[in-house]
Amino acid sequence: MSLVVLMLASQLDIASTSVRVFGLNAKYLTGDPFGNYPDPYVKVWCGSSFGGMTDFHRDTANPSWSAEFNFPNCKENETLSLQVWDKDLNFDDHLGTCIRQVVKESSAITCNLNTGTLFYRYEVK
Ligand SMILES: *[C@@H]1O[C@H](CO)[C@@H](O)[C@H](O)[C@H]1NC(C)=O
Ligand SMILES: [Ca+2]
Ligand SMILES: [Ca+2]
């Protein structure tokens, strides 16, 4: 194999990173003005790719979700966006959005929302 082919192969290898988002949980989320607890769930994006959403947990301010999200083509410096929502009968309430740029290493993120705090982890593979 020529040196050029080897160099190309190693560049392709660097380019084919992926990101796994996991360990989502939140504290002190609020529901409605009447003091009801929210029914929270999270939607996850990397760049413009939508990774899906967690299920919603009924009546809790401190949810913890087991869902994981894999982004096969998400790279360093792209934007991870996590939107936290309160499930309702008709119109779900947006409790806040967490936006972070992907860094090379794995990270544990703490993110303040409109009210409450979202925590999650991700790793770049
Ligand atoms: C990410 O951004 C940093 C700082 O601007 C830059 O040095 C690095 O090359 C970028 N990485 C990628 C994969 O674009
Ligand atoms: Ca609500
Ligand atoms: Ca609700």
Please outline the major beta sheet: 4 strands, antiparallel
**CATH class call:** Mainly Beta
Query: Which residue ranges are poorly predicted, with pLDDT under 50 across at least 5 consecutive positions?
Result: none
What's the architecture, going by CATH?
Answer: Sandwich
- The overall average pLDDT, rounded, is 90
Oligomer: single chain
* Helical proportion, percent range: 10-25%
Please give the domain count. 1
Categorize the overall geometry.
elongated
Structural class: mainly beta
Number of strands: 8
Structural summary, described in words:
The chain has one helix at 3-15; strands at 19-27, 40-46, 49-53, 69-71, 79-86, 93-101, 107-112, 117-124. It has one domain: C2 domain (Immunoglobulin-like, Sandwich), CATH 2.60.40.150. It has 1 helix and 8 strands. With 125 residues, it is mainly β. A 4-stranded antiparallel beta sheet has the order 4-1-8-7, with no helix packed on it. Strands 3-2-5-6 form a 4-stranded antiparallel beta sheet, with no helix packed on it. Helices cover 10% and strands 44% of the residues. Bound molecules: 2-acetamido-2-deoxy-beta-D-glucopyranose and calcium ion (CA) (2 copies). InterPro entries: C2_dom, C2_domain_sf, Perforin-1_pore-forming. It comes from Culter alburnus (Topmouth culter). Residues 1-17 form the signal peptide.
